[in-house]
Write the structure tokens for this entry.
Amino acid sequence: MGSRIESTRAEAKRLFLGTGGVVGVGIANDTGHGLLTFLMSEDQQQTRQQIESWAMRNEVAVEFLVTGSIRIRDQKKEK
Amino acid sequence: MLPTVSQMGPPPVESPVVGVGIGEASGGGERIVLLTEIETGAFDSKKLVASLGMEDLQVEEIRGGRAISTARPAEGGESLGHSNGDTGTFGCLAKNGANVSFLLSCNHVIAALNHGQKGVDAVWQPGKKDGGSANSRIGVLEDFAYITTGGHTSNRIDAALCKPDNVGDVSTKITSVGTLAGAQSISLGASVRKSGAKTGLTKGKVRLKNLSLIVDYPGNVQALFDGQLGIISPRSGQNFSEQGDSGSIVVDDRNCAVGLLMSCLSGVDLTIATPIQEVLSHFQVTIQ
């Protein structure tokens, strides 16, 4: 099962990462059909719908976390 | 008659008080002195003594920031930084095949985000933002993993090594964690802990694995990272880490190192950590 969710994740990364507000994609559950988590810089309904349609075709569950932009260093606090 | 410090009791969880002592009161006698980390309207020392039935007690608040250890040997979990002011956490000690010890942290903490000069740049403990200065120098930047920007080329780690000037100045212990029992991979759902310079010891749970993410850096540059872990706090309303904890070592239930904390998100409770084996194999070092 692990290899299937890994390949599905890789496909999701190729299709969605860096577009439509998607700033991250990872595996939240690697059993059964698996669960992919998409990190979103902002909640974009159109992107969600595209991902959900893709997920149905690929028989994988998805969830969305609106995280904002991911910053290694807080540019205001600089710490 | 002043109450004893123990009678004052522990401060509330959200209290900014980081120290309690006794000082001389105006007009003679004694007064309670509270050392506070930050100014906050939510904390009122007069209400505190009133709640103890001691309205006549003189209380003085001194805002001096958080107490930061400058003691040697330095332990993992304590503040560390580059001489340019970047500040984060000293993760742990690692050693190479020749048994030379290094402090492990992040590129963006001690290597000036790719701009550090190996063998030249000073590393301070504590870091500048925690009160460090040139007198706090603990070693020199030894090596770092270059972070490729642009958002398309995959990066695996944000990590760097510092060679201590004096190996006696560093400890294999991690504050509130103890000595590490080696390195290990970690599974989804596993319980973890970390000791960071900003938030101290916190507990977490592995929420995501094999996470690819695009990270923003100052100057509108982006970098793609692959193979990361996402960690959350098991306690609602709390974060596993905050800014200043970068470089912390994440450990499992058996005190094995499992990750190097590289980022926390400001809006939600999600901390990004790199699987520790990626870091160790890059530098060809082992946990000490």
Residues 1-13 of chain B have pLDDT under 50 and may be disordered. The helical segments of chain B are 5-8, 45-51, 107-110, 276-283. Chain B has four helices and 21 strands.
